[in-house]
Input
Amino acid sequence: MKTIKIMPMTERKYEDIPVDKIKVLNPRNRGKTKFQEIIRSIKEVGLLKPILVSTRNFKRTGHYELICGQGRYLAFKELGYSHIPAEIRSCSKKEALLYSLVENIARVPPGTMWFAYEIKRVHDEGWSYAEISKIVGKCESYIRDYIRLVEQGEARLIKGVEQGLFPITFAMLVARSDNSTIQNVLMDAFDTGIISSNNTSSVRKIIETRIKRGKQTGNRRGRSRLKNYSVKNLKADISKITKEKRSFNHEANIKVNRLLTLLDGINTIWKDKKLVALLKVEGLDQRPRLKGEYHV
Output
C-alpha cells in the first residue's frame, strides 16, 4: 500500500479561496443539531481549522476538490461568506481518500454507523480489505463484516452496534440467519454473555422491527404507524410482549434446569471414591469450578 509522507508545516500552502470554487466529490448527510453547532462556533469564534482541498483538476475545471471539512465548508456557505481558509494540496484521488479517511476516523470512533458507510465508500473506490485494515487499526474480518452489513442494508443492526447493544459478531450472526432461527441466535447470545439481561429487551426490539419492517430504518412508516396508534393496537402489543416474555422465561428455565442437572450429576460422580482415585492417577482430580451460586 502506498504511504503518504507527512508534509512539514513550512511546506504547506494556505489561502483564502472562493467558496463557489469548491466542489464536494463525496457529499454526506449530517445531523442538523451538529451542523447548527458548527455554524454557531464559526460565527462566534471563527474557523479554527482550515478545510483541505486538492488542485487535481483545477486547471481543467476551475474548481478545487474538497478532501476534508464538508461541515465547515457548508457552514461558511450558510453564513454567506465568500471565501474560506483552506490548505491546498496537489494529490491523486486515492491520496485524497486517504487524507479524508484518516481525518474523519480521528474524529469518529469505529463502531458507529458513519464509520461503516465511510469504510464502504473507501472500499468502493478500490481499496482492499488489507489496506483499509492498516489505516483503521482493525483486522480484515472486522472491516469485511462492516462492509457486508452496509451492502445488505442492515442499518438497524449497524445502529445496534453503534449504541453498544451488541458487538459486530452478533450483528453478522443475525444478518446471516433467517427469521426462523434468529430466536435461537438471541438465546445463545444471552447464554454466552454477548448480550445481558439489561439490554435484552432493546436487542429483541431491534430484531423484531427488522423482521417486521425490513432492514432499513423506515422512518416514514414509523411516523405513519405512530399517528394511527390506538388503544386496540396498545392492547395487542401488550398481549404480544407478554407472550414473548413467557416464551423467553420458559426457554431460560429449561436451560437453568439442564445446568442444575449437570451440576447435580457432577456432585454424584465426585462421591465415588474409586472414580476420583482413577481421575487422580490421570491428573484429572481438579473439580471444575463454576462462577455463581447454584445451591446443589
Remarks:
- Strands lie at 13-18, 22-23, 51-54, 64-68, 83-89.
- Confidence is low (pLDDT under 50) at residues 218-227.
- The first strand starts at residue 13 and ends at 18.
